[in-house]
C-alpha cells in the first residue's frame, strides 16, 4: 500500500494491483495506488483526487485525511459549484455562511452552489477521513436553488431497495427537484445483489465503506473491497453480488438527477 498506511519503498513481491481505469467507462481505484495531491486551500490534509473530468466524470471526488489542525479555511466550492462532505471517521467542524456544524462519523453536509464550505479537524489531535465531492450545479427553468442539508446516516431510515429486503438504501438528500444530484448509501447483505444489470445515463462515484463485492462493470467482473473507489461513467453496465461472510457490502455514491441532458 502507498501513503495511506505509510508503506512505501521496495516490497517483497512483484508490483501488482487490482486497480483498473477505463476512461469514460469505469474505474476501480484501490487504496494501494493512491497518491497525495496538493490542492490550494487545503492545509494539513492528505488528499487523493479520485473520479474527475480527466477520467470522464462531470464531478470530482476526493479522499481527504485531515490532520490535527488541518482543513480548508479559505472555502471550497461556491460560484456555481456545489459540494458535499461525508465523514468516514473522525470529527470535523464545518462552517457555511457563518454557521457551524459539528460532524461526527457518518455525518455529512451538502453546500449549495452559491455558498462555500469551510471545515477543520476537531478530533482531539487524531486524523479525520472525509469523502468529498464537487460538481457544477445545473440550473433548470423555474426551479429554485437548493439549501444547505446536513445530517448523519445513523439517523436516516434505510429502506428495502426495489423490493429486496437484503439490500437497503439510504437517501442523504431530499427528493426535491431543486437538487441536480443525490447521494445515497446502498448496503447489501452477503449473497444479495442488484435485481438487474443497470444501464443508465447517470454517472456514479462510489466509495466502499464496508465489506466486499463482485462488481459487474461493463460486463467485467471486478472484485471490490472496503476502501476502494469505483467510477461508473454514463451508460456503464453495473451491478454487484455482495460476497464475504458477515459484513454487509456498502458504498456511498453520487448520482446526477432531476435534469434533462443538455445539448
Ligand atoms: O442508484 C443507482 O443507480 C444504483 N443502484 N447504482 C448502483 O448501485 N451501481
Ligand atoms: Mn446505478
TrEMBL record:
One of its GO terms (molecular function) is ureidoglycine aminohydrolase activity. Its EC number is 3.5.3.26. The gene is allE. Residues 186-232 form the Cupin type-2 domain. It comes from Jeotgalicoccus meleagridis. CDD domains: cupin_UGlyAH_C, cupin_UGlyAH_N. This is (S)-ureidoglycine aminohydrolase. It comes from the Bacteria. It is an enzyme of class 3 (hydrolase). The lineage of its organism: Bacteria, Bacillati, Bacillota, Bacilli, Bacillales. InterPro entries: Cupin_2 (IPR013096), RmlC-like_jellyroll (IPR014710), RmlC_Cupin_sf (IPR011051), UGHY (IPR017627), UGlyAH_cupin_C (IPR044697), UGlyAH_Cupin_dom (IPR008579), UGlyAH_cupin_N (IPR044704). Residues 58-117 form the (S)-ureidoglycine aminohydrolase cupin domain. Keywords: Hydrolase.
Amino acid at each position: 500500500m502507498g501513503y495511506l498506511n505509510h508503506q512505501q519503498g521496495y516490497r517483497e513481491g512483484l508490483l501488482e494491483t487490482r486497480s483498473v481505469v477505463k476512461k469514460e467507462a469505469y474505474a476501480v481505484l484501490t487504496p494501494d495506488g493512491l497518491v497525495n495531491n496538493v490542492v490550494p486551500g487545503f492545509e494539513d490534509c492528505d488528499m487523493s483526487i479520485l473520479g474527475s473530468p480527466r477520467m470522464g466524470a462531470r464531478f470530482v471526488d476526493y479522499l481527504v485525511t485531515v490532520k490535527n489542525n488541518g482543513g480548508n479555511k479559505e472555502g471550497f466550492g461556491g460560484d456555481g459549484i456545489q459540494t458535499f462532505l461525508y465523514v468516514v471517521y473522525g470529527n470535523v467542524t464545518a462552517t457555511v455562511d457563518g454557521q457551524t456544524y459539528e460532524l461526527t462519523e457518518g455525518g455529512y453536509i451538502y453546500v449549495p452552489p452559491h455558498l462555500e464550505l469551510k471545515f477543520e479537524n476537531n478530533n482531539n489531535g487524531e486524523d479525520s477521513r472525509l469523502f468529498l465531492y464537487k460538481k457544477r450545479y445545473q440550473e433548470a427553468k423555474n426551479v429554485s436553488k437548493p439549501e444547505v442539508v446536513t445530517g448523519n446516516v445513523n439517523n436516516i431510515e434505510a429502506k428495502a431497495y426495489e423490493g429486496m429486503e437484503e439490500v437497503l438504501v439510504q437517501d442523504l438528500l431530499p427528493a426535491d427537484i431543486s437538487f441536480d444530484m443525490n447521494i445515497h448509501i446502498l448496503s447489501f447483505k452477503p449473497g444479495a445483489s442488484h435485481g438487474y444489470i443497470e444501464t443508465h445515463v447517470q454517472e456514479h462515484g462510489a466509495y466502499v465503506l464496508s465489506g466486499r463485492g463482485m462488481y459487474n462493470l461493463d460486463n467485467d467482473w471486478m472484485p471490490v473491497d472496503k476502501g476502494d473507489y469505483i467510477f461508473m461513467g454514463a451508460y456503464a453496465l453495473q451491478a454487484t453480488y455482495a460476497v464475504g461472510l458477515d459484513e454487509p457490502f456498502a458504498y456511498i455514491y453520487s448520482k446526477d438527477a432531476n435534469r434533462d441532458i443538455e445539448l
